[in-house]
Amino acid sequence: MNTYSNYDDGTHGSGNVETNIFREHGADQGYITAEMVGTYRMSFKAKNTNCGGVNGDNQATGGTCHAFVKVINSGDFSQMLFERTETTSTSADAFTDMVLDYEITDGMVGHILQTGFMNYAGNYAPTGMLYDDVVVAEYTPTPAPTPEPTPAPAANYAEDDFESYSIDGDETLAGWKMYVNVFGRNDDGATGSIQSMATDHLMHLMPHTLTKVQYLQYKRSFSRIGSR
Predict the structure, then answer these.
(1) SS3 letters for the chain?
(2) Which partner for 200 in 90, 178, 183, 221 could form a disulfide, CB atoms 3.0-4.6 Å apart?
(3) CA distance 109 to 34
(4) Cβ-contact 219, 167 below 8 angstroms
(5) How far apart (Å, rounded) are the C-alpha atoms in residues 42 and 102?
(6) What's the pLDDT tens digit per position in 127-168?
(7) What is the CA radius of gyration of the chain?
């Protein structure tokens, strides 16, 4: 089907003309029925012959072309639905496969459904398009994929099982920052003066600098203050 603007309309000389070429679907009188409620796809092939090009006589340009679906109110003729897809940019060398999806709702029953093609231009700008293999059929959209659930935050701030760490070997606690104060022992068994202070880098030195008893006391007394 070859479509183009209504160049016999004198409005072209002073304004813009919208030309609609369409088919009405529905009952004999062209109205939407309850059985038509659902989702649909209008599929077709499009080839641009000169839509959007330049008129060689007056250099006019700027024409646009679209496929469209409209639902027109059968009482006041207002638009209840207007979906369209632009075809101006399709190839001039070969047909391009295109689709336009739309939905008919309960509120549209008793009104007028139109599917077809339109162009818009002024000053006799070119609007030529070729369309073929037009099919309007029920269509079930592919549901969007379900996003992966976001992991729930940990119920406890600290989840490490510290019993799994050994005092033997060169081992650190990943993600933990530790502070340790080492005190001497008085002859009477009381805590003596401070011997040293260190942070988490001391962990792997612990087996070499502290007694086993001091290291165990150290393990049980560090506090988590933030991840590295």
Answers:
(1) CEECCCCCCHHHHCCEEEEEEEEEECCCCCECCHHHCEEEEEEEEEEECCCCCCCCCCCCCCCEEEEEEEEECCCCCCEEEEEEEECCCCCCCCCEEEEEEEEECHHHCCCEEEEEEEEEEECCCCCCEEEEEEEEEECCCCCCCCCCCCCCCCCCCCCCCHHHCCCCCCCCCCCCCCCEEEEEECCCCCEEEEEEEECHHHHHHHHHHCCHHHHHHHHHHCCCCCCC
(2) 178
(3) 6
(4) yes
(5) 8
(6) 999 999 999 999 988 888 888 887 766 555 555 555 665 555
(7) 39
Look at the chain and count its residues. 228
Residue with tokens 């081992």: 171
Residue ranges, the chain, pLDDT below 70: 27-29, 152-183, 195-228
Give the pair of three-digit tokens for residue 153.
Answer: 């935050």
Structure tokens at 2: 């070859």
